[in-house]
Write a structure and sequence with these properties.
single chain, 90 residues, 6% strand
């Protein structure tokens, strides 16, 4: 029964505020990647989806270049998501 509660909370409990970490510079990158971060709390599942999408994009430098995304800034964005994970003990 406890396993179901933990799994349910993973998908439904919204407590991660990504928006407060996003600067204009990061917002511009996310917009170019068609990722919208709203001013609300996200569930762990929602956070993981966004983070996984960013991690997969890291390997596609040609795609990032085609979107005019600076590789160093993109890596800093990934670092930011690592910080969010640490801040929320995810």
């Amino acid at each position: 029964m406890e396993d179901h509660k933990v799994l349910d909370e993973y998908y439904t409990k919204k407590f991660i505020n990504i928006y407060k970490y996003i600067t204009d510079e990061y917002s511009e990158i996310l917009t170019k990647l068609d990722i919208t971060i709203e001013d609300r709390d996200y569930s762990n599942s929602e956070f993981d989806k966004i983070n996984s999408k960013l991690i997969r994009m890291r390997k596609n430098i040609e795609f990032l270049n085609s979107k005019n995304i600076d590789n160093i800034l993109f890596m800093k964005l990934l670092d930011l998501f690592d910080k969010i994970e640490a801040d929320y003990n995810l």
